[in-house]
UniProtKB/TrEMBL annotation:
Entry-linked InterPro entries: SusD-like_N, SusD_RagB_dom, TPR-like_helical_dom_sf
Protein family per UniProt: Belongs to the SusD family.
The keyword Signal appears for this protein: yes
Protein name, as recorded: Putative outer membrane starch-binding protein
Major location (coarse): membrane
Amino acid sequence: MKNVVYIALLLLLTTSSCKKYLDVTPDDVATLASSFSNANETEAYLFGCYSNLQALADIRRNAGFTTSGEVIFPINLSDRTTLGGAGGDAGFTIMQGLQNADNPLLNYWDGYNMGLNLWQSIRMCNTFLANVNTTPGLPPYQAQRWIAEAQFLKAYYHYWLIRMYGPIPIEDVALPVNATTDQVRVPQQTVDSCFNYVVNLLDTAINNLPAIIENTAAEQGRITSTIALAVKAEVLATQASPLFNGNPDYAGMVRKDGTHLFSTTADPTKWQRAATACQAAIAAANAAGASLYQFKLNGNVVHMSDSTEALLAIQGAITESWNPEQIWTLNPYFGWQYMAAARTNADAASNVFAVYSNFSVPIAESELFYTNNGVPINEDKNWDYANRYTLQPGDDAHFYYIKKGYPCAKGNFDRENRYYADVAFDGAIWFGLGNTDDNNANFVNAVNGYAAWPDALRGNATGYWAKKLVPYQTYFGQTSVGYNYSWPFMRLPALWLLYAECLNEVSGPSAQVYQYIDMVRARAGLQGVQASWAQYSNNPGKPGTQAGLRAIIHQERRIELAFEGQAGWDLRRWKELQGVMSGPFQGWNVNPASNNFTTQGYYQLVNYYQPVFSVKNYIYPIQTYDLLTNPNLVQSLYW
């Protein structure tokens, strides 16, 4: 344990942006007496409580990303044998129908298959809370803050489990090692009891957390009251949402004593509670200095137009770490740029090991983004939706988005800025990745749509890339230079849109609802919701109804938060993920074995695979073995 403390102290003194000190895990064999023998040992144990939280920065562990339908991983069952398997793809393969109760994928109950053992993390938090006040000489103010951090972590770990499994046991205290069998066989609590427990813990923690981190060099990444208030708002909005609020699909899930684990009647007042929490969270964020990211040039640039700068202002909200828009950022660097990047130069194209390029965006996700008129592509009366798959050459009007003269799908023209900032496609200009001159007419993101598929593991399956995840400063080639950034877990626009959603659910359309949606749209260069629909939509009355505005808010969140590990959670709580998964994942014919490196061969719409998703997939299964060891548990319904 002393070695762990020395490492932690060394990292505190030597790290700045990565803050690895939060990754410290206490030695499990240390005695409780040594773990809490002084302030340094106690703080090291607290950092261990943070460990699994920091691990969530790996978006491959996040069901909100891997099972959202935003990105697919191009490896199928036959390729697994040929290529010897592919690490880290467990979440993606859930969509192929591989989820099961005997050995669940993304298992956060036991910590298998890209999941993390969150019960272990909760137990560590409970142990810390039971022993922190035994630390000799620990100042009360310091103890209060550390206790509040552990309370937040315990609340968040419970919340993550609730989102996955619905009703869960509540582990409020650390059970002694000599606990009886009956004591450890804890049954699940009702969904509402679980949510209320989390909210009460957050309320307790908020009072003793700092609003901001003053000493960023030593403490960046630790929990603040601003973060806790934002999480509370999200927790309450999740509780109010259709998946958990009177869901008839789960009315039959009962505990063995006959207790219904899901509420059987929807309670609309839950939305008001969530709206109030959103309002408080926004006020706290404003007081802490939160604001939209403003682009700042960081790197050697030959030429950058206003058009390109507007795109980088959108992308930089993600890739510029700790900017004022990021309410909550996790310390570990995002490690999968080479999976999201395209091969934009000859060196990268010839070195498939430098750029795997295999986070593949289905065409349906690319079509989610609005036209440049700020309405859905199938609603814009001035946009040629029927002919979106035909080809036309890049022109002067799209010089900074599409290579001039390059034959490209018509659906890539006349789109909003977030489309060009977040998604890349054959023929798209990718500012960065070695090219920082947007007046270079010869530059194209040489995805070489036609050479994007060297094999099943190192290729893009659809012809669309998650450009948003790759900073323009990063370069891939024979020698690669990564511009690392810490993972943004929650941004200010997410809170604005959550508030708009809650207000609309409480009382329908209002000036305040439009205001918070329009604040997000403005950075993308779009008019407000009412103006855009009135002028350009073939359904101009849509924003004036509660149901219509709900659909707009849902789409706005999916666009604004695309590829950030949020859409999958939103689609689950709205009970809309089944609809997203109803059709096949499609893309262009990227395989040179069948497209012959020709434009005609490439631009053939193909079905990559049909995702498998039904009602039972909204709630994850508990491993069968756990039901045997704890007979008081009941399996998630339909499993």
